[in-house]
Amino acid sequence: MEEKVVFARPSLLTDAPFHYCPGCTHGIVHRLIAEVLGELNVSRENVIGIAPVGCAVFAYDYFDCDMTEAAHGRAPAVATGIKRVHPDKVVFSYQGDGDLACIGAAETIHAAARNENITIIFINNGIFGMTGGQMAPTTLLGQYSTTCQDGRDPVLNGYPVHVCEMLSQLKGPQYIERVSTHDAANVLKAKKAIKKAFQYQLEGKGFSMIEVLVACPTNWKMTPVKALEHIKNEVIPYFPLGVYKDRG
Amino acid sequence: MARVIFNTDRCKGCGLCVTACPKQIVHINGDKVNAIGYNPAEVSEMDKCIGCAMCATMCPDCVIEVRR
Q1: How many domains does chain A have?
Q2: What is the pLDDT of residue A109?
Q3: Which candidate from B61, B62, B67 shows the least CB-CB separation from A6?
Q4: Is residue A30 part of a domain?
Q5: From CA A241, how far away is CA B15, in angstroms rounded?
Q6: A190, CA 20 to 30 Å: which among A25, A179, B1, B20?
Q7: How far away is chain A from the Cα of B3, in angstroms, using its nearest Cα?
Q8: Domain containing A186: what range?
């Protein structure tokens, strides 16, 4: 019987090695996007991605398609412009929680309210990773960061922002789901969600956002394996997984 | 027969593949240092591999190729 390759690096990723820390699951999400677009037969000429400011700032080196870099938080606005000029292209933005939920909250909300026909991949690791682990809008109560060293205190720092729940209250968006990367089964679920989001975009149905819970072992000060357990035991109870909006 | 091929010099030794493997045949080789300075993951008993690709699914760095 002839041997077949059943799993390999998808062709929409370049050969550049990811710069992410060991055990950071950003790389998994990059791969899922590339796999999904391959499965949907979207060629590299027909995809335009927008990289954020944050750990994924070099995403343009990793995707073998047209990519652009947006100012901090402005990726949904840039995506809106690109999609309106190139309605036949698949446009996605890849943003972290500091980018999307903090400085880019307004852009995100209004892109969703307008039901722009774009796909946002929202990476939630509960911390500003690139700048060294400061508190993000999604930092859990009691969680350590360099700017809340006794743990996040709701009196002083307020409460974490639930982006999926917030956006699902709007009339505009087509599809909003929160998924996780803490084990293989959930990675496959995340892939399914990302695929559905791109399918909706190809059908012209409008705004989709997939929030992906990602580990940041470096700034959480945990081993990679412990960080995934932390997602399962601490993060998911606070940020429940599931479909928050699907207009079908 | 299934087998996995590790692009060892891309491995950062995070160990997510080790916990993902249902057959528990992936381990981190503490005696070896790869080109980027990490202890890489490898498979000890390849004949036990079932080609489920769980390790590759969890690998954040696309190190693993699965064949069967």
Answers
A1: 1
A2: 96
A3: B67
A4: yes
A5: 25
A6: B1
A7: 9
A8: 26-246
pLDDT at A91 over 90: yes
Q: How far apart are CA A186 and CA A166, in angstroms?
A: 23
Q: What is the CATH classification number for the domain harbouring A212?
A: 3.40.50.970
CA A16 to chain centre: 20
Using one digit for the tens of pLDDT, what is the confidence trace for B19-52? Answer: 999 999 999 999 999 999 999 999 989 999 999 9
Where along chain B do its domains lie? 3-59
**Coil, helix or strand at residue A194:** helix
Whether residues A18 and B65 touch (CB distance < 8 A) is answered with: no
Pairing of strands A134-135, A127-128: antiparallel
Specify the CATH number of the domain B3-59: 3.30.70.3270
Reduced to 3 states, what is the DSSP secondary structure of residue A216? Answer: coil
Asked if residues A77 and A238 have their Cβ atoms less than 8 Å apart, the reply is no
CB contact under 8 A, B14 and A22: yes
Across the interface, which of A7, A18, A225 has its CB nearest the CB of B16? A225
Does A64 fall in a domain? yes
What mean pLDDT is predicted for residues A205-227?
96
Q: Is the pLDDT of residue A2 over 90?
A: no
